[in-house]
Automatic annotation (TrEMBL):
Protein name per the record: Propanoyl-CoA C-acyltransferase
GO molecular function, one term: acetyl-CoA C-acyltransferase activity
Lineage of origin: Bacteria, Pseudomonadati, Thermodesulfobacteriota, Desulfarculia, Desulfarculales
InterPro entries: Thiolase, Thiolase-like, Thiolase_C_2, Thiolase_N
Gene3D superfamilies cross-referenced by the UniProt entry: 3.40.47.10
Domain Thiolase N-terminal: 7-129
Domain called Thiolase C-terminal: residue spans: 287-399
Amino acid sequence: MSQNVYIIGVGQIRFNKYPQETVRTMAQQAIELALQDAGLQKRDIQAAFFSNTFWGMFDNQHSIRGQVILRRMGMDKIPVTNVENACAGASTALHLACTGVRAGAHDVALAIGSEKITSDDKLKSLSAYATCMDLENFENHIKMIVEVGSSFKNISLPQGESAPGQGRSIFMDAYAMGARWHMDRFGSTQEQLAHICSKNHLHGSLNPLSQYQQTMSVAEVLADKAVAYPLTRAMCAPVGDGAAAAIVCSEAIAKKLGLGRAVRVAASVLGQGSDRDLDGEDIGERLSKQAYAAANLGPKDIDLAEVHDATSYGELHQTEVMGFCPPGQGGVYAMSGATTLGGELPINTSGGLECRGHPIGASGLAQIHEIVQQLRGQCGPRQVAGARVGLAENGGGNIGVEEAAMCIHILQKA
């Protein structure tokens, strides 16, 4: 018989560039913070799920990554599952931890994500992202991005734009393609994307764990270096390192520790993208419906959301497919102030991937860290008043025109 699952501890180090840190040292810091937050000891953890994507590529550590980290901490004998699901790895780790507890296999489980992407070899860092696509079909995929991204009749592209992936992550080209489609079909604008980015810089400036903590005006965002039209550098998540963790438990354990700090996992949904065109049903739309049904809630019940804004267009798109506003209105909705702190539905109060940072194996749990703190009322100047329900959407990889994987969690104040 399934049971309720609660998050009782979270931990995150500030996302940033850390030349002296390793995947292991960052993970250990986040785990210690989560244990301290939960009021638990290492011996209380019964299972662990570790998310990482690039450790093998950068330092040749494959296969037993989680065991390497936990054994060094004195956490042995427990089952450890290594999770790799591109940018959705950390939220997938949480999904698996919740599934184990809900099924009764564990009473207390740890989800941890840690990633180090910065490198002296910048080309290596940028090219790593391409491995989150179908490499066997890579040339055809790039050809599709170029052809579709330049086929919109209502969009005038700037002259001299460099080839996809040249000096940037190939994902920026995939997002640019989606943004151009949205501009062509709905009339959205580059200014709307800049407004979303400026809003996230405001939120990030209030978050001590954010990689970027300076504000940027809409004009400054638009004037920043061009990446792939309509995206400028400020609209794109930075390269960085970091780790985040969450501890989940059964209802019996949560009651024993005190429900005052516990946050209930009302829904945890994991899914794969489909073979569709840009006008087909989006993975986010499909999975959000599943999450709302599981939680017995709807978009209007959500008080705040963390969505996957690897670019500003990512946030605009997810705002629509999560059901927070009608299709085509994501930019208008953001411009109205609705998604800014103090608005009707603050989005990415952490600063989002654009400002909080995006060490991809850890990003999903950073979203959870933010929502848990918000539901506890611990976010100080960026606190969402009266927050009781939060949604986290975390996408990973790219096949065709959408994410290869996605996790959606809905968290509710206990």
